Amino acid sequence: MKNISKSILLTSILLFALTSFGCTSQINNINEANIPSYDDNTRLDDKDLSFLDAFEKTTVTRVVDGDTIVISSGEKVRFILVNTPESVHPDDSKNTEFGTLASDYTKEKLLDQTIYMEKDISETDRYGRLLRYIYLGDGTFFNELLVKEGYAQLSTFPPDLKYLEMIQAAETYARENDLGLWAYEEDKTPPVSKENGRYIGSVKSDKFHELDCRHIESILETNRLYFDTISDATDKGYIPCKACNPNN
Ligand SMILES: [Zn+2]
Fold this sequence. Notes:
With 248 residues, the chain is an alpha+beta fold.
């Protein structure tokens, strides 16, 4: 009985969330099998928004692209755990039509809006951008929304992994339902450039690394291999680097 009530509750939460996001056409596609578990995502369902009080409140003054904004202090903010396809890369060959769509989506949702920012562990990335989770005034977790709607893919930012499982579930959901960028490719290969692979190995070694590992600097550009998942790397015989430990 308990399990049945729990799945009914989860189903209700998910349906509520989908309705709020305006993608009612997807509801018909839902069956028990592909409902991801959003155990930690009950925020949309309870109207208690007091959790936002713990976060930094600010206003979005500019949207750089789908996953990067500028806030009223003038600081740039990069959303954690997500990556949208390029749209404003100086090398135009890296920009994709979908990158522009993702950027437009973020503009529509965030530009001139009040948002709440949650820090994980790191203050900034190596480019000096603040690394943050973003919430809308109604409590919507925007990092997750981007992925769930298929505008972004999961991208790991160690050690900032607090919501990894939630974002992973959102990505599985988007992929299984052919949402956003996942609808573009027949074979479900995400339209990312090589530079957006999540792990790096070298043709000269058997180790693979997180993108921010200090060992990557010493790997020549021409010797670099990119992997999207840990199993892509291990299937090819690569083992995790001990310094950056890409397994956790
Ligand atoms: Zn490493």
